[in-house]
Structure formats: C-alpha cells, structure tokens
Amino acid sequence: MLNCRTYVSRRRLAACAAMFFAFQAGQSGAQDTSPPPQEVAPEITFTSWTGPYMRSQMLGFVRPFEEETNTRVHVAHYNGGINEIRDQVESANVIWDVVDLTQADSLRACNEGLLEDLSDIDLPEGADGTAARDDFVPGALNDCGVGVIVWATAFAHSKSDFGDNPPSTIEHFFDTKTYPGARAIRNDPSVIMEWALLADGVAREDVYPMLETEDGVERAFDKMDSIRSGLQLWSAGREPVRMLNAGEVAMSMIWATTGATASEEDGADFSVNMDGRVIELDLFGIPKGSRNKEAAIDFIRYASGTQALADMVGYLPNGPTRNSSLALLSEETLAQIPNGPAYEDKAFIRSDAEWWAANHARLEEQFQLWISAGARQGAAGTTR
Q1: What average pLDDT does this structure show over 72-76?
Q2: Which of 72, 214, 276, 366 could be joined to 43 by an S-S link, Cβ 3.0–4.6 Å?
C-alpha cells in the first residue's frame, strides 16, 4: 500500500495524498457491483371533460400512447373555463400538463399568457400524406392549441311529455305555451344567447354583430325570459341526461354526441334534435410553466394524429379535426358526427370563438345577473 509518511516535503506529501485517494476511488469502483440506476419513465397529467367524451379519449389515444411510449398519463377532469389554469400559472404551481379546451377558452388563455407557445409544434402529416397544416379544419390550430374534435351543442326533449307532438326547431325550445315544462341550460352565456336570437328571427350571420350591441343583448335576454320559470342549470355533460330521464325538465341543452349516445341507453326517455345546433372545436393546450412540457408535446403529437383521432371518434361520434381521419371512419360514424352530411338540412351556427374570447367576460357577468335577478332592469347590469 502507498505510504505517504515516507515523503518529507509538503508538496510531495500533497501529491502523494492525491495519488492515494485516486487509488482508493479506483479500488472502490472496481468493487461496486450495484445495478445502474433505472431511467425514470416520463409522466404527464392530462385534464379533460368527464363522461363518455373522456372514455373516448382514454380508449382512442391515452391508453395506446402509454403502451407505445412507456409514459404514464394521469387523468383529471374539470368542467371547462380557464380559472383553474389561471390559478395554477399565477401561483407557480402548475400541476396540469395538457388540457382539453374549447376553442374560445384556448384563445382566451393564450391571449392572457396562460399557455405555452405551440405555434412551431412539429405535427405529423396526415395518413394520406397531407401536410399537417393543410389537414386540420379551419380554427383547429392556433398559437397555443392543437385541435382534436368538432362537436356541437343541441337540445333534447322528453318523449313522455311530447310523444305525439315533439318539438322540431330551435324556436320550440323557447315556446313554453305550445311545449310547456321546465328547461335546462349550461351555466354559461354561450350557445343560449345565440339560440335566443336565432329563435327570435335573427339571421345567423347577424347573431354576433347583434350581440355586440346593448339592444341585441337585451333582445336575447328578453327571449330567454320565456324559459326562466323552473330553469335548471348544469355544468357536467351527463347532468342533462339525468334531468331528462328523471322528468325534472321537459327540454334541455345537451352536448350532441353525449346526448345521442345516452338516448339509446336502457331507460332513456328523451330524443336529441340537431336543429339550431352550435358547432364548436376543442383544442389541446399546455399550461405555462408545465414541468413536463416535452412529454406533453409528444402526447399532443400522438393524440392529434390521423389514426388517434379516428379511433377516438369511433367511440363517440364527434367530428375529427383532421380531414384525413374522415376516410378511416365507418359509414355509421360518419352519419352521426355533428358536422356531417346527415344534418345538412338542419339550421346551425358555427360558434365564433374569437368573438367569445373577446366578449365572454362581459356577457358572463350579465348572464349571471339574469340568472340571479328576480327582474332585470337593463342589459348592462344596471338593474349573464
């Protein structure tokens, strides 16, 4: 063994000590038989809407992504909006990595700086070779989001209440004299305000310009007054299904594909009508400050691929945001998607997501006042 005591000078002693410790380290390394550390598998938290829609995502791409990439996907659910994302970002406590957002919420969150920039995300081309940017439907790509579905809000009616004379147009939703009974709507100003103006005779191209004005907002609320008595509010997609089946309401706003699927379940007592449906998009976004950004981007790339979107839509017939996915759908599924040819003869409106991103806060306040007030005294909240 090396003996540094035989060295006299301080310099030689220091050199000897360095040699000694190097020798010891080499001996230690040679004797280390422990296995190398295992690489930790990536993990992300994916947040979406619950119910049949989440099931379609789980089976369509979440589980396949886990199996193919060895990435663990934790799944959470919420009822929409951007308040929870804002809270996480502003508190520097971001726990969600990918969030399923409506197109309007995607734009709002992006404008507020709450989402990561995805403008240069490298998405796979379509299965038919189409470049990704040309394969997605209009509005499905923005600076912070990648689209996954085209969906719609429609209305459903009780079969027991209207068996011999069912409602058939959006005007009937507001006609409580001919079609009496309580109504249910989502606790949000979007869709119901468009419906109110459509039912009051406003052409669909004039709906949003009309809602820009106080007179237009007042006109919408005046029409909505007809359904105030007994009005029920819902947030989660299965709530209107329960309300209709329990006889709590005679008609309800409902997410079209969720409602269509639920209407075929045992014991269901309602039908879905696609007249007046409002067509929207959902996009995936990454909250600003995600600690798993790269894994989140990989997930979005996978989930928005041609095959993944077709697989998801096969479990719940929303429209895919990629045109190349349509060729992979069965004739039965194509006949059910809300933007498909089966409903071309029904009135519809495409939700203006940019308009809602700019105006949602204003109309949300007035909508909540309308909900809570016994009597309104003005459209500007002077007494959504």
Answers
A1: 97
A2: 72
